[in-house]
Amino acid sequence: MHRRSDRRPVTEWWRTVDRWFLFSFFALIAFGIVLSFAASPDVAQRIGLDTFHFVERHAMFIIPAIAVMIGISFLEDRQVRRVALVVLLGSMALMVATLFFGVEVKGSRRWVRLAGVSIQPSEFMKPAFVIICAWLFSEHLRRPDIPGNLLAGVLFAAIAALLVAQPDLGQTVLVAATWGAMFFMAGMSWLWIVVLGSIGILGLAGAYLTLPHVASRIDGFLSGAGDTFQVDTGREAIVRGGWFGQGPGEGTIKRVLPDSHTDFVFAVLAEEFGILLCMVLVAVFALIVLRGLTRSFREDDHFRRLAVAGLVTLIGLQSMINIMVNLQLLPAKGMTLPFVSYGGSSMLAVAITAGFVLALTRRRPATRFGHVRFSGDTAMQAAE
């Protein structure tokens, strides 16, 4: 037990951090480590790499990811906004650079190489975008004469244009859904709901009509025709796993699943460890989302309320899309499972997201009538 008079930064952090969030994020990291051993060796051997190539690289990113998450969780609200602004401007600049100098993979330019390292800037853009939009929305709520909603809309349009130019429809939909949820929580009128919903439907229709790879994936999903090998194999792995799985290392279908260590890691989890453990993983994501929304609804500060809700919505939607693709409930889309799938950019970006959540949900004292009231779960306490 730490004495309440102990004001050392680490002690104060441990006393005020939301441990449900903290332990949930570490649980996802643990899932990622286990599944890295289960899913990636066969992929590495198939493409001629060392058996544990992806395992070693996954482990290599865990330490900096944890350091980033914990480091950011020490920040105050103003510092969170400053860090987010720097990350957003940097990632948007790199997204522009990918259009001209990026590495083209399957017809899309989403990656850029810096100092010999491949980076996906859009991954880092997402948490920073949520924070800045939350700040803009909150400023408009605080002072209606500030055009915060308009500026947030302009920012979203710029981000969406960069994503469509890559093209990356999946990330565009994810960012649009998160932004729309935040706008709704900021008091969007029904007129805006109808207008933006119509624009979204028209945008999806335009993507289907103008982007051949989008049309082929949707047609393949609806008709079952075309190249559906990966999603069919993923479903077969899930069915074969049953309730309790085949056992660690005993999966066989994963050996022919091309993206078993990234987009289809959930299928590997199901084949080797069973549906029951899959339900545990889903429960961890559900806990993060539900606790985040509950905390945000009790929050008096508009910025923290919108930022926390937006961040957990981002995590929840991304995990839901990944899992639904594995279950053949959505067309195939290259989207990682937060903290679980292999990928350095994804892991570091999710670490930033988690750090923002931890920073914004820490209990902070606010003096009221001679007492100290802690935001969050702690009740009124006498001032020392």
UniProtKB/TrEMBL annotation:
Q: Which UniProt keywords apply?
A: Cell cycle, Cell division, Cell membrane, Cell shape, Cell wall biogenesis/degradation, Glycosyltransferase, Membrane, Peptidoglycan synthesis, Transferase, Transmembrane, Transmembrane helix
Q: In which pathway does it act?
A: Cell wall biogenesis; peptidoglycan biosynthesis
Q: Which InterPro entries match?
A: FtsW, FtsW/RodA
Q: Which domain of life is it from?
A: Bacteria
Its subcellular locations are: Cell membrane
One GO CC term, this protein: cell division site
* Annotated membrane topology: Multi-pass membrane protein
Q: Which reaction does it catalyse?
A: [GlcNAc-(1->4)-Mur2Ac(oyl-L-Ala-gamma-D-Glu-L-Lys-D-Ala-D-Ala)](n)-di-trans,octa-cis-undecaprenyl diphosphate + beta-D-GlcNAc-(1->4)-Mur2Ac(oyl-L-Ala-gamma-D-Glu-L-Lys-D-Ala-D-Ala)-di-trans,octa-cis-undecaprenyl diphosphate = [GlcNAc-(1->4)-Mur2Ac(oyl-L-Ala-gamma-D-Glu-L-Lys-D-Ala-D-Ala)](n+1)-di-trans,octa-cis-undecaprenyl diphosphate + di-trans,octa-cis-undecaprenyl diphosphate + H(+)
On whether Transmembrane helix is a keyword of this UniProt record, the answer is yes
Q: Looking at the Swiss-Prot or TrEMBL record, what is one Pfam family this protein matches? A: FTSW_RODA_SPOVE
Q: What is its EC number?
A: 2.4.99.28
A biological process (GO) of this protein is: cell wall organization
UniProt lists the family membership as follows: Belongs to the SEDS family. FtsW subfamily.
Q: Which NCBIfam families does the record associate with it? A: ftsW (TIGR02614)
For this entry, the protein name equals Probable peptidoglycan glycosyltransferase FtsW
In its UniProt entry, the species of origin is given as Oceaniradius stylonematis
Q: Provide the taxonomic classification.
A: Bacteria, Pseudomonadati, Pseudomonadota, Alphaproteobacteria, Hyphomicrobiales
